[in-house]
Amino acid sequence: MTLFDTHCHLFDDKFSEDLASVVERARAAGVRRMVVPGVDVDTSRRAIELADRYPEVYAAVGIHPESLADWDAAVLAEIEALTAHPKVVAIGEIGLDYYWDVAPRLVQQEVFVRQLELARNVGLPVIIHNRDATEDTVRLIETRANGVTGVMHCFTGSIETARRCIRRGFFISYGGPVTFKNAENVRKAAREIPDEWLVVETDAPYLSPHPYRGQRNEPARVAQVVEVLAETRGQTLEELARLTYDNAHRLFPRVEAGGSR
Ligand SMILES: [Zn+2]
After folding, report:
1. Ligand 1: centre distance to CA 188 (Å)
2. Distance 245 CA to ligand 1 centre (A)
3. Most buried by CB count within 10 Å: which residue of 65, 77, 146, 257?
């Protein structure tokens, strides 16, 4: 089986002691590609360092809505400069977070829109974070993305929301929450996502899938996500692994196609 973890934060301090064995376990589980999204300038740089160190790791660069406490427009120029690196494959993660509300909502929206514009200028897809902000997130995608495509990271919404995103060229990414026992509503939407728009992720070190819920998550466990999705959708493991792997390459065209089956 060949797997693609489209979202893992390998720069997190929780991996500082044993990152080499985390990557080893990912390889052993069949994970051939990983995208590491930054959440601010510093972690975007660290994501690029990891991409330089590990052949199967790629980076995304961007400002997360939780990183806007001391927002300064100058950081966007730094993010733009980082996109020159050949293993930077997306702008992310970016979006809106009305749960933590670290910055005023209008500021979050402005920074989100400016990063959508940056993505268009540099020709990269975007990785979208949305927490308790579905209406505004989808509205800005519909009105301000202007042809930029990307992925709805760790999607837990309805099939109606998914369809609005797909219509704009956005892939739907499932992670640990789709495996949780009480997540029948998440699986209900997952069942109806068309094959060609589905991708998978871990969001490591967060959101470990069942039966590891609550533990530190790692890319090897994208296998559990694939397993539950396959069962939910009535597909074989191999079929689901192959289609999510191929879709992730369509989502991130800069990721090298090698290392496949
Ligand atoms: Zn994330």
Report:
1. 23
2. 19
3. 65
pLDDT for residue 173 = 98
pLDDT of residue 261: 39
Give the distance (Å) from ligand 1 centre to CA of residue 8: 7
6 Cα–ligand 1 center, Å? 10
Q: What is the pLDDT of residue 260?
A: 44
Domain map of the chain by residue range? 3-251
pLDDT at 258: 61
Which residue type does 45 have? Answer: R
- CA 74 to ligand 1 center in whole angstroms: 23
Residue 229 CA to residue 209 CA, distance in Å, equals: 12
Q: Domain spanning 3-251: which CATH class is it, in words?
A: alpha beta
pLDDT tens, 221-238?
999 999 999 999 999 999
C-alpha count within 13 angstroms, C-beta hemisphere, residue 83? 22
Ligand 1 centroid from CA 65, angstroms: 11
Separation of CA 156 and ligand 1 centre (Å):
14
- Intervals of the chain under pLDDT 70: 258-261
How far is it, in rounded angstroms, from Cα 61 to Cα 51?
Answer: 12
